[in-house]
Design goal:
alpha+beta; 4 helices; globular; NUDIX_hydrolase_dom; NUDIX_hydrolase-like_dom_sf; Nudix hydrolase domain-containing protein
């Protein structure tokens, strides 16, 4: 009979995001007056949008995480990366509680293909989840027509 190590989680353990703050690096890439976002939905807000990016790993700087995420999801390189701000949100999504700190960077693509397409699909390598990416006019978010996360991002764009 083997003993359960202290690192093994019991079957009834909370999901890893519970009671943890997740740091996320997001890239605000623009095409004229449009922002590249992915579209998703939740029980709480319905359809919403968020810039592409992902979690920062332990020991990784957020700007390096941003570059890694864009390489993994879109196979593109970023240039002219600059900090736009840090935002913090505690929220419910599909019945689960989350707490995230968003490090948001403005950037441009080295490759031109994303600018030439109005929408495309990216794939999250860890989960295999497909992300529906599209260019949305900034006015959709500043006029309050659509929901963008982080919610205060339109103020700095």
């Amino acid at each position: 009979m083997s003993k359960q190590s202290s690192t093994d989680a019991p079957d009834d353990a909370e999901p890893p995001h519970r009671e943890q703050i997740r740091v996320v690096a997001l890239g605000a890439v623009r095409r004229d007056d449009e922002l590249l976002v992915f579209e998703d939905e939740s029980e709480e807000v319905g359809t919403y949008y968020r810039p592409l990016g992902g979690g920062v790993e332990f020991g990784e700087h957020s700007v390096d995480a941003l570059r890694r995420e864009f390489r993994e999801e879109l196979e593109v390189e970023l240039t002219k990366v600059h900090e736009l701000g840090t935002f913090e949100d505690a929220f419910r999504m599909n019945g689960e509680e989350y707490h995230e700190v968003h490090r948001v960077y403005g950037a441009e693509f080295v490759q031109q293909w994303p600018y030439q397409m109005d929408s495309f699909t990216a794939q999250e390598p860890e989960t295999g989840e497909e992300l529906d990416c599209l260019w949305k006019p900034l006015t959709d978010f500043t006029d309050g027509e659509e929901t963008l996360f982080p919610e205060k991002l339109p103020d700095v764009l």
